[in-house]
Amino acid sequence: MLDLILPLECGGCGAPGTRWCSACASAWRVGVDQPHLVAPRQDPGVPVFALGRYAGARRAAIVALKEHRRTDLTAPLAGALALGVHRLLRWGLVSLPLVLVPAPTRRSSARRRGGDPVLRTAAAAVAAHPGIAVVPALRMRAGARDSVGLNSRGRERNVAGRVLLTRRVPAGAEVLVVDDVVTTGATARESVRVLQTSGARVTGVLTLAHA
């Protein structure tokens, strides 16, 4: 009866009767070579890593989490992010103590989405790790528009000077900026610049997907 009123469907492929099917779970599995290094058009000045391409089940799940309030997808996406962070630690590309700083979002977008999905995912990913903290240190100044549909130059102008530091990260910790998708790299570059200007030691950017 509940399925008739609120039908279950997979957040990755839309398959009925389940919130997260085995095929989509497999598509999100972090491979032995992931996260891999990507090169966005706008270089943030630190390595940028992604867990896969922004396509198929990966894209659908991210969109469902962000735009359709599918908070039930936080757990599987956080699991993938957690493994990505673990790999970077194991490979020696980041070290403890470590601070994850979610990429900034507009307040209006966060309200519409019932909160910041990147912050929620990052917090769930490292909740059990005592050496890693999540600090929402950035936000987007009013006036920034939705970046969907903007080209590389437009995205750069859209975020230039609009990323604000709201709190400082703990001294001595390395900082990893985390986001759902990196496209042109404009937001990542401005985020890294603002954090570094405040004295933070940013060592990389990690995203769930790259476009």
Automatic annotation (TrEMBL):
The keyword Protein biosynthesis does not apply. Transmembrane segments: none annotated. InterPro entries: ComF/GntX_DNA_util-trans, PRTase-like. GO terms for molecular function: glycosyltransferase activity. Keywords: Glycosyltransferase, Transferase. It comes from the Bacteria. This is Putative amidophosphoribosyltransferase.
